[in-house]
Every structure is written in C-alpha cells, then in structure tokens.
Amino acid sequence: MSGSPGSVRNGTDSFSIWRVPNFFFQPRGMYLGGLDEAIGGLNRLRSLLGLATLIVVAIVYQGFGRVVSAPYQPGQAKPEASNAVVNGRVYTFAAAEDRLGEIALSAILTAVAGIGVSVVVSLALVVAARRGARLATARQLLWPIGTVVVFVAYFWSFSVAFPWLDARLPGIVNFLILILPVIWFFKSIWLVVTGLFRADDGHPLLAPITSTITAWIFGVLAVRGAQPVGMPHPVWLVTVLGGPLSITVVAWIATRRLKRLYPESYPFRDGPLA
C-alpha cells in the first residue's frame, strides 16, 4: 500500500526514502481537487503508447529507414553482413548502437518538442479562460513549469556529479554514493513521463492536447521520411501512424470522461475547481 499522491509517506504513514521523487513529480489533482484513477490509468497507457511511438519513429525515420548506398562494381569485395546489394548498389544499414542512439535522440527531441507544444497549449488555455479566471488559470500552470525546472536541474546535477565523482573516488565508492540518486532518477523519469510533468495539476486538458499534437508532429515527420527498404507501404503507414492514432484515441477517451465527471465545469474555462 502506497502513500497519498505526492507524499513522502507510505501506507503506514511512515517516511519512505523511495518516495522522495513522488513529492516533486507526482500529480496531486490540484486543479480538480482530487485524482481520478481511471484518468491516471489512461495517462499511463498514453505514456506507454508514446514510448512505443518514439521508438518506432526512431527506427523507421532515423534508424532502420536511413541507409547509405554506393555503386557496387563486379569483382568488388563481398559486403559485410550488415550490408546488402540491391539493383547494383550496396546499401549499408545503421549499426545496432547507432539505432539505440537514434532512439535516445528521439526521446530527447520528443521531450523538447513536448515542452514547446505544452507552452503554446498553456497560453491557449489561458486565453480561452473567461476574463475573470485567466490569472488563476495562469497561476495553476506554474505547477508543470516548476516541475520541468526541477527535473532539468536534477538532470544537470547528474551530468556534473558523475564525472566529478568518477575522477576522485574509486568505482565501488562512486557506485555506493550514487545508487540511491540513480534509483530516484529513473523513478523520476517514470513519474514525469506518466504525469507529463504534473500537467493535470496545471490544467486537465493540457496533457491530452499536448500529447496528441506532439505525437502527430513526429508521425508526420516519419511519413515524410524514407520508407525502409523491403517494407510494404501499408505496413509502413500502419507502423508510423498507429502510435499517433492510438494516443489520439486515448486522449479523446480521457476528455470524454472529464466531460462526464464535470459536466458543469468542462472545458474548465472558469479556473481551478479546488
């Protein structure tokens, strides 16, 4: 049994060192005055779909889909196993480590794009609020902004701490010092991914709109990229567009549930309900 959302206490009301990231990165339902478990489940599903989408985009658009070709001359040395000869040309496919790098790069680009989209969506939500509720709406959106700042600072501290400790301490000591912060770091990643930097604390519609727009941005980029060699066109389209379509459906279900639960407040133009 776990503690309440955002609490550092566990189910027995005792301090839990493992729940420190929850204090910073777990949504609390501060806009609506409480959390809906079904919405939380949809958020987790949407995040898993988003993870699958960025992996597919990395593989199709930047990894497997990117090949380097050169003319193949008769008598030329036999290509390596990672190469192929098609219609008189040698096609060199990305190495496995390059593909993993592309996936990591896509994750970073997705996060950056998502933050950029969320800023635009946040401004639109403030403008859409009624005149007397715009200031309260803008103040509420400071929660996801603050969460982004804290996470970036945490990420930056790792980039500084790892090289500094590695240069001064033995490996085992380094490991013992960093094991807890590393566990916190990966838990923080899970919390910010599933909660989209506490987007629901800022506005109930921020996460569904932002995730849908971001997914389609990368979906369109993938479609505009080169189709992988040998992959049928219909299969390629389903692979590339399946993620954005799935995320859109999940976001639609979430917004429909919000409308059903809060019929008099939806689309929340009158500011926070809490």
From TrEMBL:
Organism: Dactylosporangium maewongense
KW Magnesium (keyword) present: no
Domain of life where this protein originates: Bacteria
TM regions (residue ranges): 45-64, 103-129, 141-165, 171-193, 205-223, 235-254
Assigned keywords, A-Z: Membrane, Transmembrane, Transmembrane helix
Record-given protein name: Integral membrane protein
